[in-house]
Amino acid sequence: VEEVIEQADYLYGSGETEKLYRLLVQHKNSDDAELLWRLARASRDLAQLSSTSAEEKKQLAYGALEYAKKALEKNESNSAAHKWYGICLSDVGDFEGIKTKIGNAFVIKEHFQKAIELNPKDATTIHLIGIWCYTFAEMPWYQRKIAATLFASPPTSTFQEALRYFHMAEEADPNFYSKNLLFLGKTYLKLNNKKMALLWLSKAKEYPAHTEEDKQVGNEELQ
User: How does it assemble (predicted)?
Assistant: First the structure.
């Protein structure tokens, strides 16, 4: 197992998404949580590629959720398993509509918070809670209305709360992720702080593009 994980981490670092998925999917019946969450991440990364068809994206998203769920069953105290379960559950919500998405939101946040409890230095998970807050702060009124009819106390948040998490993520690991820089800029814009917005948006724009997502962040900057 250790050898497979070592090989997987090398492929992940090299951005070999398809090779990585092919390597890990052979071990989908494994009982090792470390292997399973990596397979969940690889399935999701493959689903995110622009070359992946819509039907494949859906299959991979549901597959990723299964692997993450299995990783959690095998090891409840694995921080990455909680993080990827939250991420994959959020992805599946995209296929199931607003009711499921809002219903899952509480569970997703709980898993992210558990992941940070287990690994307080994980900047990515802190960033994800920021995204969660930003999403609910920005939620349009008609979705809020749906949420209010479905749940006694639907998920809510503020841009200030989102900002706090984005800054915490930056403190945990400065300049770790183009999207965190972008969202710091976007959140400052929402709070009408143009000066700070410009500072962070230009940092996002200058960020070296390693992944397809970095390139998208750069392009979003130019618009």
Answer: Interacts with microtubules.
